[in-house]
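S.,

Sequence below, as promised.
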Amino acid sequence: MNVISLFNGMNTGRQALENVGIKVNKYYSSEIKPYAIELTQHHFPDTIQVGDVTKWREWNIDWQSIDLILSGSPCQDLSAAGKRAGINGKKSSLFFTFVEILEHVKAVNPNVLFLQENVGSASKLDVGIMSRALGVYPVRINSSLLTAQLRDRYYWSNIKTKETMFDLVTDIPQPIDKGIMFKDILTSGSHIIPQEYLKECKSGNMSTIERDKHTCLNTGSGNNVSQKSLIKRDSTTNMVTLIYEVNDKIRCKTNTIKGYDVVTENDCLDLSFPTSITRSARVTKGKSPCLMESNNNLYSYKDGMVRTVNQIEMERLQGFPDGYTSILSKSKAGSLLGDGWTLPVIEHIFKFINK
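The prediction came back faster than expected:
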């Protein structure tokens, strides 16, 4: 196949095609992050880098030869974690650039396949706008079926579709749940909490914590900690205790009626927004929360120790082999993993191409 990958990131689409046995002839990557390009070329040096997606009319491509277009357009304006500017926001509006490219290729190759992904927390209005622009409604798949991470995403594709009474919908079936839990991806060893986070914490007695599934990876990552109170209340800074111990049990302050959750082994603790009134801390049972492009402060608890997830664990949360991002620093790897696709989910979708 000849493929164009827009917003290519860490090149998950190419890796997924290789993993399911689909031969790639030419693979064009549109990406501007230097370390994303570095990782792509490390694994697939034959990748053709074409640059900024907004300058697509300048690309030297035989458009008629393109068989597959991949797009993971920016989600910052659509996500519940963002400012909800919507599909017409500054970043998420790049979706319409993908639509322009898709329509351009369709004019010379009506059989071109496509895959577009975006966050599951997008509003119904924005999902409707994107669906009408693409002529197909999406399937919704949570990465938790194939990994230890809660990562809810919409996938629009014409790889496999079906007609309903009123609409054409993406007909990719749900993957079979592999039952992978957060505890299953943890390694031994510890890490140090980043200095940028420590400056918001007050020193205290050392202690630790761990969990089952992790929430979604976002662009960013953290290190290790072992303190009974990560943040103490301070009259001058108005800081609030997030983690503390009561009757030999570790509690985490949460935005719930009782005000806390008990952290047990195999739980995942999310401290990505320590100063937020509504999102100060989260405890997820069994799975990890979603990795993000930034603010990845995910912790595990075991044997009285709280530590952040390490680089290998972040790779596992997105379904990649250990060491896949080893040429990058943890922060750069966390950025790409948190902003990227879950490899086993894309493999699952691509298995229907040959069919």
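Helices lie at 12-19, 34-43, 95-108, 124-134, 195-198, 311-317, 330-339, 343-350.

Coffee later?
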